């Protein structure tokens, strides 16, 4: 079983995962009641991209996309990793740290604007308090830490602003300390600077998120860390054989389903002197990231998706598998899936599979809360 430095396996609601109900589909009363009692803690949601680039309010119901606060409440969401996503377009001109701070500012402003329904959580005790109050707990999470440049001072400043989760690797762009999943390795995992980042995050009590990292970088992070290492949105390589997904040998960790990645050479061709406001205009049209138009009849049903979750549980145990949806992050959704409103479909499918209620509560949020407590509330 996983050691203290092992991974929590987070199953993502992407091409492999969560099937939602079409309009008019029903969920059993037992499932709805169980879902309402559980803490539903989603490990990865793109909650603010649309609002940053196009304006608006996360508290307003949207006609498209997969996430907003009204629909999240309908889906029973209690807590989420609130992703701050800086695309690789900002990297060539080294504007990524500035963009991360701009997006953090937007996230904090949006959460403050909706303080009656959502609040920033800095540790597990915060999550429990916020959840009891009837609000959603938001854990600030940066997706792709190229912008940190392996600088502990930058990490500490983001920690002071409320950031509690950092993804070690960029999507396709090798940083000066960690290799991503989908380019040729430069460091064959982490170099000494990368190990220093891990040590500093351990000291601060921050989640080390290995999604998008290479197999070697994931393994190196596990070895270097004295706290659990989490992958917030991964998939199973045994089901979908792409480098982005997790091999069985590293299943002391996370889950996500595969998505297409962009060509970094095209980004470089845009040059390094593009003003940041112009980059915003280039990047903005991709948000919200809408799923690919994959025919419904070849997508997994929710019961087939729970079969994927069950495979992970059989490999690593029910204490190490959790939910990380990647809503509004672009993965195609399973058959009939609408958006975050239909999260109770998962609970219903797990009951049909014969899962005990305690196992379901662990998957929906109990496991991630336990690990988040272990990381953020340890004595430093």
| Helical content (DSSP H or I, runs of 4+) | 25-40%
Query: Which architecture per CATH?
Result: Alpha-Beta Barrel
Contiguous runs where pLDDT drops below 50 for at least 5 residues: 1-9, 11-24, 253-271
User: What is the total tally of β strands?
Assistant: 9
Give the class from helix and strand content and strand pairing: alpha/beta
Number of distinct helices: 13
Proportion of strand residues: 5-15%
For the record, what is the CATH homologous superfamily label?
Metal-dependent hydrolases
| Biggest β-sheet description | 9 strands, parallel
What letter string, H or E per element, gives the SSE order?
EHEHHEHEHEHEHEHEHHHEHH
- Span between termini: 26 Å
Radius of gyration of CA atoms, rounded to a whole number: 19 Å
Overall residue-averaged pLDDT value: 84
Q: How many independent structural domains?
A: 1
Overall 3D shape: globular
Name of the top-level CATH class: Alpha Beta
What is the CATH T-level topology?
Answer: TIM Barrel
Structure, explained:
With 380 residues, this protein is of the alpha/beta class. It has a single domain, classed as Metal-dependent hydrolases (TIM Barrel, Alpha-Beta Barrel). Helices cover 36% and strands 13% of the residues. It is built from 13 helices and nine strands. The protein has helices at 29-37, 49-54, 69-74, 96-113, 124-132, 152-160, 192-204, 215-224, 264-269, 276-283, 302-316, 344-352, 357-376; strands at 7-11, 40-45, 77-85, 118-120, 136-143, 163-167, 207-209, 229-234, 321-323. Strands 1, 2, 3, 4, 5, 6, 7, 8 and 9 form a nine-stranded parallel beta sheet that branches. Strand 5 (136-143), helix 6 and strand 6 (163-167) form a beta-alpha-beta unit. Helix 1 (29-37) crosses helix 12 (344-352) and helix 6 (152-160) packs parallel to helix 7 (192-204). It starts with 6 loop residues before the first strand and ends with a helix. The model is unreliable at 1-9, 11-24 and 253-271 (pLDDT under 50).
């Amino acid at each position: 079983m996983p050691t203290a430095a092992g991974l929590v396996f987070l199953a993502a609601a992407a091409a492999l995962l969560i099937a939602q109900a079409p309009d008019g589909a029903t969920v059993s009363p037992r499932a709805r009641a169980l879902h309402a009692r559980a803490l539903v803690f989603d490990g990865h949601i793109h909650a603010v991209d649309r609002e940053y680039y196009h304006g608006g309010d996360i508290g307003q119901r949207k006609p498209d996309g997969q996430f907003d606060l009204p629909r999240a409440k309908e889906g029973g969401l209690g807590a989420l990793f609130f992703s701050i996503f800086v695309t690789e377009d900002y990297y060539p001109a080294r504007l990524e740290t500035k963009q991360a701070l701009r997006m953090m500012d937007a996230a904090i402003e949006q959460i403050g604007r909706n303080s009656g329904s959502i609040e920033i959580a800095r540790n597990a005790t915060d999550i429990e308090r916020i959840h009891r109050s009837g609000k959603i707990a938001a854990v600030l999470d940066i997706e792709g830490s190229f912008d940190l440049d392996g600088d502990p001072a930058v990490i500490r400043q983001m920690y002071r602003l409320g950031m509690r989760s950092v993804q070690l690797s960029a999507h396709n762009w090798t940083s000066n300390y960690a290799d991503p999943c989908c380019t040729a390795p430069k460091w064959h995992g982490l170099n000494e600077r990368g190990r220093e980042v891990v040590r500093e995050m351990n000291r601060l009590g921050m989640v080390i998120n290995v999604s998008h990292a290479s197999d070697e970088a994931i393994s190196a992070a596990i070895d270097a860390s004295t706290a659990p290492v989490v992958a917030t949105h991964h998939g199973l390589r045994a089901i979908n054989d792409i480098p982005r997904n997790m091999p069985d040998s590293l299943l002391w960790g996370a889950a996500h389903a595969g998505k297409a990645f962009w060509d970094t050479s095209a980004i470089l061709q845009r040059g390094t002197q593009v003003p940041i406001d112009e980059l915003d205009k280039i990047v903005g049209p991709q948000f919200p990231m809408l799923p690919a138009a994959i025919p419904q009849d070849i997508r997994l049903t929710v019961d087939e998706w729970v079969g994927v979750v069950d495979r992970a549980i059989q490999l690593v145990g029910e204490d190490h598998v959790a939910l990380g949806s990647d809503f509004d992050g672009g993965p195609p959704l399973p058959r009939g899936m609408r958006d975050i409103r239909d999260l109770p479909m998962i609970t219903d499918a797990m009951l049909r599979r014969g899962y005990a209620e305690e196992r379901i509560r662990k998957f929906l949020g109990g496991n991630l809360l336990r690990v988040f407590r272990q990381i953020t509330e340890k004595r430093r």
